[in-house]
UniProtKB/TrEMBL annotation:
The keyword tRNA processing belongs to this UniProt entry's keyword annotation: no
Protein name (Swiss-Prot/TrEMBL): OmpA family protein
Origin superkingdom: Bacteria
CDD domains: OmpA_C-like (cd07185)
Comp. bias regions, Basic and acidic residues: 64-73
Keyword Glycosyltransferase appears in the UniProt entry: no
OmpA-like domain residues: 214-329
Alphabetical list of InterPro entries matching this protein: Bact_OuterMem_StrucFunc, OMP_bac, OmpA-like, OmpA-like_sf
Cellular localisation: Cell outer membrane
């Protein structure tokens, strides 16, 4: 993030933080952000395992599950029933429930605020607190509510204001400590991890995100590093990555419930993807228990239902294949 962009982001966050003083405790339309992001190269097609594909195919937009994805490879929004999920390029997801099915409407008004939907852009204006949350096709925008404010730039650089003060995080995570914010990588041999920037020939293995306004810490582990194609057994590099993540969160999770959720792309049937997501989440959970004795885990699957990017391209599908570890700070 350059100086001018950072100054603009800081100004926006300060303005947003000022607006927070007018927020009320009662919420008619609720927003719950959580971090999910990933990277990789292979597709989790179920056809190689004999499962039925047809409920969803490469490029499907989730309509098989009553879900409409308005996403690019970087972000956008997803509509499902009465909920609209803002999806940001740094992994943050923000969910609004407008209380009634959205359908094909592009403007929804209720007693709380106004939601406007256009292509891959969504804007929420809260009439009571006078705050605004937005996302565009670059996965950039703002998230503002009573607990804090986030500004996400098109390159993924993030500025946020919450109970822990102002934080700046570069697009590669190098401006934040791994235990707070940042990306981490595995080397070309799959034997070492590094934080902030990859070694020669290395690739992204995951991302820590605590720049969330609901006081959540999230660690997204990329399935294409953790597992071989269509498998749920950790690779040697995957074992290393989970162990590295465990060492970072070990002191922070004592006495807390930790969620481990498996996610897939939309290739293959919805049922198969739910099963694959659960098997992969369980594999990560098993490794975590050996690394953090006594850790309290809640393991589940979201399958293909919480995309982080478009399922219409391989780059987007790769971002959807991930296992997320999260807990309240």
């Amino acid at each position: 993030m350059n100086i001018r962009t950072r100054v603009s982001a800081l100004a926006a966050v300060i303005t947003a933080a000022t607006l927070l003083s007018g927020c009320q405790e009662e919420q008619v339309v609720t927003g719950t952000p959580s971090a999910n992001a990933s990277s990789g190269q292979r597709s989790d097609s179920s056809t190689s395992s004999g499962a039925t594909s047809g409920d969803a195919t490469p490029g499907a937009d989730g309509t098989d599950a009553g879900r409409r994805e308005h996403l690019t490879d970087k972000g956008g929004y997803v509509v499902q029933g009465s909920k609209v999920t803002f999806v940001y390029n740094n992994g943050v997801r923000y969910v609004l429930d407008v209380g009634a099915p959205v359908g094909d409407r592009t403007t929804i008004r209720n007693g709380t605020g106004t939601l406007t939907l256009k292509d891959t852009t969504a804007t929420w204006v809260d009439l009571r607190s006078r705050s605004t949350s937005t996302v565009d096709g670059q996965g950039a925008g703002t998230v503002i509510d009573k607990t804090g404010a986030i500004v996400v730039a098109p390159d993924g650089s993030t500025t946020c204001a919450n109970g822990q003060g102002l934080q700046f995080v570069g697009s590669d995570g190098s401006k934040g400590q791994a235990s707070k914010n940042g990306a981490f990588f595995v080397d070309a041999d799959g034997k070492k991890t590094s934080y902030g920037s990859p070694t020669a020939g290395g690739r992204a293995a995951g991302r820590f995100t605590v720049c969330n306004i609901d006081k959540q810490v999230s660690v997204d582990l990329y399935s294409d590093v953790l597992f071989d194609f269509d498998k749920a057994t950790l690779t040697p590099a995957g074992e290393l990555v989970v162990a590295s993540a465990a060492s970072t969160i070990r002191d922070d999770v004592r006495g807390k419930a930790v969620n481990v959720v498996g996610h897939t792309d939309s290739t293959g049937s919805a049922d198969y993807n739910a099963s694959l997501g659960l098997r992969r989440a369980n594999a990560v959970a098993t490794k975590l228990r050996t690394q953090v004795p006594g850790i309290r885990l809640e393991v589940s699957t979201a399958g293909e239902t919480q995309p982080a990017a478009s399922n219409a391209t391989e780059a987007g599908r790769a971002k959807n294949r991930r296992v997320t570890i999260s807990y309240a700070r």
